[in-house]
Write a structure and sequence with these properties.
mainly alpha; two-stranded antiparallel sheet; 4 strands; about 40% helix; globular
């Protein structure tokens, strides 16, 4: 019952109340990013597969400028990442706009992190089971190693979560996530600074 009904209800109520409280803080972040990004915008969207692999657009705060070299190519991530962006990413604030995705029903507060659509044909049948539930802003793999574990292990953790999903497990993951944010553990960077690409199951 929790998985099929109450999880969605709790997600919606929790996010709605959270946004009602933190909107002044989000507005402040938007103002800072507007100036720091030099006209590149404050938000960006990325296509991601959700429940049953249905594609949706995940929303994030933009932490880089769109500065280009003389040939029109984007400068390296390390150059385009702003000082404000570094702070936003180090505190995982860039993920907060995904609360809108939770309200819309694209995502859940807790679940396997949504990855790139191009990975869909590369999963094994077992790995594909991560799409049996809504993807989350945080998940079991994120609190058990994040970028310090292999893709194989991440998918094992994702499927384990699908099989053991419960209210108390979600509460545990949320508290562990808060802890990891405060100690800034496992923060990954955009673009080239992210973990290596997934090339298919073994």
């Amino acid at each position: 019952m929790y998985k099929s009904v109450f999880k969605r209800v709790i997600d919606f109520i929790t996010v709605f109340c959270t946004l009602a409280i933190i909107w002044p803080f989000l507005l402040l972040i938007i103002v800072f990013l507007h100036f720091a990004n030099k006209g590149a915008g404050v938000f960006f969207t990325q296509e991601r597969p959700g429940k049953d692999a249905k594609i949706f657009k995940a929303i994030k705060f933009k932490t880089m400028t769109d500065e280009r070299d003389a040939d029109g190519k984007l400068l390296p991530d390390s150059v385009r990442l702003t000082k404000v962006g570094k702070i936003v990413r180090s505190l995982s604030i860039d993920e907060l706009p995904q609360l809108i995705n939770v309200l819309k029903g694209d995502m859940s507060l807790v679940g396997p992190r949504p990855l790139l659509p191009k990975y869909l044909p590369l999963y094994s049948q077992e790995q594909y089971r991560r799409h049996e539930v809504r993807p989350g802003i945080t998940g079991w793999a994120q609190v058990n190693g994040r970028n310090n574990i292999s893709w194989q292990k991440k998918f094992e953790l994702d499927v384990w979560y699908v099989d053991h999903l419960s209210f108390w497990l979600d509460i545990k993951i949320i508290f562990l996530t808060i802890k990891k944010v405060f100690i800034r553990e496992g923060i990954n960077m955009e673009g080239a600074a992210t973990t290596e690409a997934f090339n298919g199951h073994n």
